[in-house]
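User: Please fill in residues for this 173-position structure.
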């Protein structure tokens, strides 16, 4: 068995499920829902691990409703890597963006634990997928690629604007 198969196998045997969470205040959320409903967005998050020749060897998809300005996070845990990413959509008249903040901890045999952090601001167009690679988009020391695809659309209850409309062309409060 090659090193890459051992690492990938260990990643899946010991990995936790993709945890998605939205930060909110439980007591205040009920009061804010009616006023925020028209600003809410839907985030479709597809996290997957690509092996050799970019074959999908693990995949998990989630559908979340988020309030602009509030982060939605994912957590991937493997035997030798932990990836935490928060995605925060900001919807504005002059152009919407998605801020991706990532933290990665990984162990390398004989070298100990390494830490990497990143922050990216990505232009956002409703309905258009955004690809995020916490470990880069080329095979690395893990012999695999972690790919997170985020597609953001308007909440169906938010207003009558088309779901695929560019945020910079639609009216927002």
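Assistant: Residues filled in for all 173 positions:
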């Amino acid at each position: 068995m090659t090193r890459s198969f051992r690492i990938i196998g260990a990643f899946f045997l010991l990995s936790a499920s993709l945890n998605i969470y939205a930060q909110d205040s439980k007591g205040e959320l009920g009061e804010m829902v009616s006023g925020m409903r028209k600003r809410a967005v839907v985030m479709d998050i597809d996290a997957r691990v690509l092996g050799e020749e970019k074959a999908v060897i693990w995949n998990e998809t989630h559908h979340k409703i988020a309030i602009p300005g509030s982060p939605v996070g994912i957590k991937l845990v493997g035997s030798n890597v932990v990836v935490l990413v928060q995605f925060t959509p900001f919807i504005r008249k002059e152009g919407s963006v998605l801020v991706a903040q990532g933290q990665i901890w990984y162990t390398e045999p004989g070298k100990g634990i390494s830490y990497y952090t990143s922050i990216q601001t990505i232009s956002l167009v409703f309905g258009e997928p955004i690809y995020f690679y916490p470990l880069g988009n080329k095979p690395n020391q893990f012999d695999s690629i972690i790919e997170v695809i985020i597609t953001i659309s308007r909440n169906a209850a938010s207003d009558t604007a088309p779901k695929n409309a560019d945020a910079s062309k639609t009216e927002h409060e």
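For context: Confidence is low (pLDDT under 50) at residues 12-25, 158-173.
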